Amino acid sequence: MIYIFLVLLLVIFYQDFKERQVFLLALLLSLSLGGYLHFKNSLLELFMHNILTNFLLLSILILLIYLYSKFKLNKSFFESFGLGDLLFFIALGVSFPTISFLVIFSLSLIFTFILFTVLESKMAYKTVPLAGFQALFLFLILFINLIFDIVNIYML
């Protein structure tokens, strides 16, 4: 299952980077598969607690993005933040325990900022492929962890 998840992450990266859009099926499959992998490695009560906590944190973040878009940028929410980005945020929230989610989510945003800053002048689109870069980061983390068995991400 982890191999399918890794392939889906690469698909999301490629589509978002090249076209700034991702097939809904790829996002829904990554959400489902990520949730399954998390569930398989957790107790039911802990899984549910993690999901609720992650969704609460994501809700606060989405509210802040909405308010910033509306009042500071004077744009609608989806003009400044893509539906694919939102769905990928949810997929991350379902896929990991809260501590792992916070670490992966935060580091993926830093990775995205650095990568976009380096590649911005070479990119056809001037928008950030957020879901794609986060998917690439997650792919790298999971792939390296799969090869070297560094840490059990689901036990943090």
From TrEMBL:
Keywords assigned by UniProt, alphabetized: Membrane, Transmembrane, Transmembrane helix
UniProt keyword annotation of Membrane present: yes
Transmembrane segments: 20-39, 51-68, 88-119, 131-155
Protein name, as recorded: Type IV leader peptidase family protein
Organism: Tenacibaculum caenipelagi
Native organism taxonomy: Bacteria, Pseudomonadati, Bacteroidota, Flavobacteriia, Flavobacteriales
